[in-house]
Amino acid sequence: MTEKSSVTGRPMTRSSDFVRGIFSLCREARPLSCTRWRRAALASLCLTFSFNATGCVSTAKVGLDELQYADGDVPVQHFKSSSTAIEHPAIDNVTTAEVRSTLAPRSLDRRVDDEVREFTLDDAFLTALSKNQVIESSALGGVGASRVLAGPDGVNTVYDSAIQETGVLFGRRGLEAALSDFDARWSTAMRWGRDDRVTHQSPLNPFSSETAGFQTGIDKALASGGSVGVFHNWDYLGNTVGSPLYPSTYSGSIGAQVRQPLLAGAGTEFTRVAGPIRPGFGAIAGVSQGVVIARINQDITLADFEIAVRNGLRDIENAYWDLYLAYRLYDTTVSTHQSAFQTWREARTKLEVGTLKQADELQARDRFYETRAQLELALNQLYSAEAGLRRLIGMPMNDGTVLRPTTEPARTELKPDWEACLQDGLSKRTELRRQKWQIKSLQLQLDAARSLVRPQLDAVGSYAVNGFGDRLISEDRSSGYGSMTGGDLTNWGVGLEMSIPLGLRQARSQARNYELQLSRANAILAAQERSIAHDISIAMQEVSAAWRAAESNYNRVQAAEERVRLLKAEQDIGTLTLDLVLRAQASLAEAEAAYFRQVVAYNKAITSLNVASGNLLETNGVWLAEGGWAPEAYSDARLRALARTHGLDDPNLEAAPKEFAVKRRAGAVERDPQPARRSDTAPKELFPTPPAVPALKPGNDAPPSEVIK
User: Fold this and answer.
1) What does the buried/exposed string (b/e) look like for 586-608 if buried means 16 or more CB atoms within 10 Å of the residue's CB?
2) Is the pLDDT of residue 551 over 90?
3) Angle (CA) 31 37 40, round 5°
4) Sheet strands side by side (includes 207-221)
5) 321, 407 Cβ separation under 8 angstroms
6) How many C-alpha atoms does 581 have within 13 Å on its Cβ side?
7) Which of 184, 346, 370, 597 lies 20 to 30 Å (CA to CA) from residue 640?
8) CB under 8 Å to 394, separation ≥6 — which residues?
């Protein structure tokens, strides 16, 4: 559809024609009847119309039926194959060599004669502590249940302490970030400008002025909550208005200013907890941005890391005993399987000569295949236990060696002392130390919050020396710096500034919130102490029960072995049926398996007792220490140590604020210290130490193939 111009009468089909029509309309406007400002406004209106018309035409969309491509009709697959596909991040990560070089796992279908690697419990601890950067834990839910897969954000690593130390966000600030609030801040600025204009008083004489400015200063927050700063600035002005004394002038000043809170946010106790007061960020930052809170958060992070290490060592020790038990059960099952095979072979021989019924031979064969199935399951359990230990200590799943535990479990009776265990539990458990740090942090924050339930009253003061001249620097005193160094032009001021939100609703609410948090933390601490007492009592019961059960099962093994020997002798002379012999052999196998299970359960109970009483790391010789410092830090520490060594204590000096950390363990119950947990008498040996754990030899667990038809 085309339109005709009302001025030219020609059809307009393009945007350019429309623009020409607009400008033609502007040209045909009579200049005699329009003032200058009207013509300018009309021209501006025409230009605006032309831009709008051009923009509308250029952004018109083209329909899909109007598009044609040289390669013809091709099916559109972009949105189906690319836009809706799952994307993966492009990162330069390389899979570790241990994972890439891992061999296929051992299984019942793949039995290889790998090299046996003797492995002690201390070797397991040392390997885990030296290889693992991520602290692994037991996966009790099967495949994919490991914390490193199910919840990687909650996994403890060796980097956690350093991450907390270098944190900068609110709530997770490190010590360096908290100290940075007291760093001196330097700011400077320079600017130039020119202004040309016509005034109403002198329309024929344009006004021109040139300006320049320079400001610099250093501000620093003080530990007392105040701030101090020095400043220096110059302003240049050159103008042509009237008849000034100097066509160009320099005016400036140099001075210092100080501000010190007197009520809310005043004092070092507040500043070391909450940091320098921030009027604009009080509702966001709260009172937890100080150096002391950052240090406490660091100690809490270290406590979390220590708890993770302790739990990791507990899981490793339990996995080590599980592997030991798997070897013992496998050895017991091999012996049982060989006995069943020998019994079946004798029954088959007697069946062939006609001295045994076929039902008895079938019973012996049934027992043989039953033990064979048990043997296969025991071997698979051994493979699984070894793989579980490898995962916890950071070793590859299969490196061509088979781990065989050589550390024998404890076989002497342990009689824990309740008083000593409870004393250790209430003074050494890391969970209590962590919670007490949390309580200390809340106490300090509560004191800081109560400081804010007061008006904001600040004492302010400033002093400056001014300068003025037609030049910035010259030999005479008429220059800017000349008049400034003369000291005749000074500026000073002192005063008080106060502001208060009527009602102090937010400050009171904040203080009340910290009171409730502190009450909650104290209640949790009491519950933790009660829970630790229960944990110790349960662990002591498990130690006692496991010992008694192991002792009974050892006596059971002795009786079962004697029973098998007697019944076998009677069966050889033909006065006893085969059924009783098979039952006796099965009872002996169950007794041996139960015996080794109770031995392992006894050692696991001792581990649980060490965890409950807070002695697991100390018992296994594991200590946490701070990492290396920067070289300069050692020199500074030595200087301060020498100063403290040769310094004299002032008996009249009262330290303020009081200390919030001590070197001794706090929170111990009022009980006399007790000796070690073992009985005062000579340890009672439960049973003789059995032979060493047998080596795993695939292929020797089944009878000769020619016997099985």
Assistant:
1) bebbbbbbbbbbbbbbbbbbbbb
2) yes
3) 75
4) 185-197, 207-221, 227-239, 248-261, 456-469, 490-499
5) no
6) 26
7) 184
8) 127, 128, 131, 132, 136
DSSP-derived pairing of the beta strands 115-119 and 401-405: parallel
Asked if residue 550 lies in contact with residue 595, where contact means CB atoms within 8 angstroms, the answer is: yes
pLDDT tens digits, residue range 444-463? 999 999 999 999 999 999 99
* Burial (CB count <10 Å: 0-12, 13-18, 19+), residue 9: exposed
pLDDT of residue 12: 46
Q: What whole-number distance in Å separates Cα of residue 367 and Cα of residue 336?
A: 10
**55, pLDDT greater than 60:** no
Q: For the chain, how are helix, strand and coil distributed in percent, rounded to 5?
A: 50, 15, 35
Q: Give the whole-angstrom CA distance, residue 151 versus residue 448.
A: 36
Q: What is the pLDDT of residues 176-215, one digit of tens each?
A: 999 999 999 999 999 999 888 777 766 667 778 889 999 9
Structure confidence at residue 691 as a pLDDT band (50, 70, 90): low
Strand partners, 196: 208
Nearest residue to 677 (alpha-carbon basis) of 429, 422, 431, 432: 422
Q: Which distant-in-sequence residues (6+ apart) come within 8 Å of 625 by Cβ?
A: none
Selection from 227, 219, 216, 228 nearest residue 252 by Cα: 216
| 695: confidence class by pLDDT, cuts 50, 70, 90 | low
**Residue 669 region by backbone torsions, left for phi larger than 0, else alpha for psi between -120 and 50, else beta:** beta
Count of CB atoms situated within 10 Å of the CB of 336: 23
**Residue in this structure with the two tokens 């300006």, named with its chain if needed:** 211
What are 305-343's pLDDT values in tens digits?
999 999 999 999 999 999 999 999 999 999 889 988 988
The token pair at 580 is 């009783």
Q: CA–CA separation, 401 vs 102, rounded Å?
A: 11
Provide the 3-class DSSP secondary structure of residue 26: helix
Long-range CB contact pairs, 359-367, < 8 A, 24+ = 360/577, 360/578, 360/579, 363/578, 363/579, 363/582, 364/340, 364/578, 364/582, 367/340, 367/343, 367/582, 367/585, 367/586
Q: Which residues contact 249 (CB under 8 A, 6 or more apart)?
A: 236, 237, 238, 468, 469, 470
End-to-end CA distance of the chain: 99
DSSP-H helix ranges across 240-290: 268-274, 282-285
CA 419, chain centre distance (Å)? 36
Residue 189's CB: how many other CB atoms inside 10 A? 10
On the 0-12 / 13-18 / 19+ scale of CB atoms within 10 A, 243 is: exposed
Q: Where are the domains of the chain?
A: 3-52, 172-261+456-499
Report d(CA 47, CA 215) in Å as an integer. 44
Structure tokens at 239: 């103008």
User: pTM of the entire structure?
Assistant: 0.78
Long-range contact pairs involving 216-221 (C-beta distance under 8 Å, separation at least 24): 216/186, 216/187, 216/188, 216/189, 217/186, 217/187, 217/188, 218/184, 218/185, 218/186, 218/187, 219/184, 219/185, 219/187, 220/182, 220/183, 220/184, 220/185, 221/181, 221/182, 221/276
